[in-house]
Write a structure and sequence with these properties.
With 182 residues, this protein is α+β, with helices and mostly antiparallel strands. The chain is 30% helix and 17% strand. It has 5 helices and 6 strands. The strands form 2 sheets. Strands 3-2-1-4 form a 4-stranded antiparallel beta sheet. Strands 5-6 form a two-stranded parallel sheet. It is globular and about 50 Å long.
């Protein structure tokens, strides 16, 4: 999806985890992108010191939505939030949206396999297609594709990188902290 249209507002955000790009349509989050090249979090980083590159002329509704999204992101990365309540709008195929929405059914601290997701959407043979849809998840963390693992429990395939997937699953207690060393 191309988010360069005038109907979208882009806000850059930086915290100790790296740089984030939030894209909103009015007050709804449409896209969240992470760039880790400028920072590497420590095991205990809480993202308390975060700031935005935000213009004063953005609409008030976007400003409010952005501040709520950042607050929830920071709380989650600090281990103090288990569920996001950010309004969002998804752009994708019907199949992709069905897969992305299924991610909300994976509880904090738990994991499911690609096969589990395929079964949950009524397409048990679409395991590879589920992986393809997850690759294009426009709002990772909010729709927790990091909770999807290989059928043998392997940490595979995550658009933000396997190191980030490990860190997120450690925050949630889904895997032991020792796995950060692998």
């Amino acid at each position: 999806m191309d988010f360069s249209s005038e109907k979208f507002t882009t806000v850059l955000h930086r915290n100790f985890w790296g740089e984030w790009t939030f894209v909103f349509e009015k007050s709804k989050l449409c896209h969240l992108r992470y760039n880790s090249s400028n920072a590497k979090p420590s095991n205990l980083q809480a993202c308390t010191y975060a700031f935005a590159n935000i213009d004063t002329d953005i609409p008030v509704s976007v400003s409010r939505a952005y501040r709520k999204a950042v607050q929830q992101l920071n709380e989650y990365l600090a281990g103090r939030r288990k569920k996001f309540t950010i309004p969002y709008k998804l752009y994708g195929t019907d199949f992709q949206v069905k897969v992305w929405e299924a991610l909300k059914g994976i509880p904090f601290g738990e994991t499911k396999s690609y096969k589990d997701i395929a079964d949950s959407i009524g397409s048990p043979k679409a395991v590879r297609a589920v992986g393809g849809a997850l690759h294009f998840n426009p709002i990772p963390l909010i729709l927790p594709c990091h909770r999807v693992i290989g059928k043998a429990g392997a940490l595979v395939g995550f658009g933000l990188g396997l190191e980030m997937k490990r860190r997120l699953l450690v925050i949630e207690g889904a895997i032991p902290q020792e796995m950060l060393l692998e």
